[in-house]
Amino acid sequence: xxxxxxxxxxxxxxxxxxxxxxxxxxxxxxxxxxxxxxxxxxxxxxxxxxxxxxxxxxxxxxxxxxxxxxxxxxxxxxxxxxxxxxxxxxxxxxxxxxxxxxxxxxxxxxxxxxxxxxxxxxxxxxxxxxxxxxxxxxxxxxxxxxxxxxxxxxxxxxxxxxxxxxxxxxxxxxxxxxxxxxxxxxxxxxxxxxxxxxxxxxxxxxxxxxxxxxxxxxxxxxxxxxxxxxxxxxxxxxxxxxxxxxxxxxxxxxxxxxxxxxxxxxxxxxxxxxxxxxxxxxxxx
Length: 285
Description:
Layout (H helix, E strand, L loop, with lengths): L6 E6 L3 H6 L7 E5 L9 H14 L6 E5 L8 H9 L6 E4 L5 H13 L6 E6 L2 H5 L1 H5 L4 E6 L1 H8 L11 H14 L2 E4 L8 H14 L3 E4 L5 H8 L3 H20 L4 E3 L2 E3 L1 H19 L1
Parallel strand pairs: 1-2, 1-8, 2-3, 3-4, 4-5, 5-6, 6-7, 7-8
Antiparallel strand pairs: 9-10
């Protein structure tokens, strides 16, 4: 079963110490960032550091992703060619995806590098990305949509708002597009690093909207994101009870299964299996 990260931490590729530290962090995914987090004069050295970091390994069951610069920049092609040859990397993240043409150009380059297996996490952070998100999500190599809410707020000229009211349509449309395409969808970052109450609130909002997890910018945000987007002990126990009851009901040839007074259907069984698989994956981190 495909696992969805509760937490995906952006890690500056120019910061060797931070990348080393990431081996011991409880994030489900690490996104080594060659784009926004790296100054233009440090792009080449950061790229080399990421490749060396991937070769060194030691990240356990965490999913590793590299956010490359766009192909329209002076660094995009070199980024993709370098990470395509990197050991242990199976996913690249692309910024400001606005069309299927962008994705096709990246796919063609990866294929030319012999990496037809490499998946793409597409960042949706502009009005054009929102307008074309259904087509973007449906592209064969896309495995996840990532909200770029900071840039999107700027382009939409939205005033500061903890409730994110101006983003409501965009967030919901991206969740719907992800579900239609059968891919993951991760909420955008929260910039107020020291505000744990605010972070928890926005994580709860994201989960209520249907997001699978959250992208993060600081290690101190991981625990809250994991708690909100991960299964609670009570949810894991209920999933075990549900599957046991479903098996017993099926073996007995009964027409219906009822748990805690509620009718159990196949969709609930699938969700229970997902919860248990997630819990098992978390235990391996």
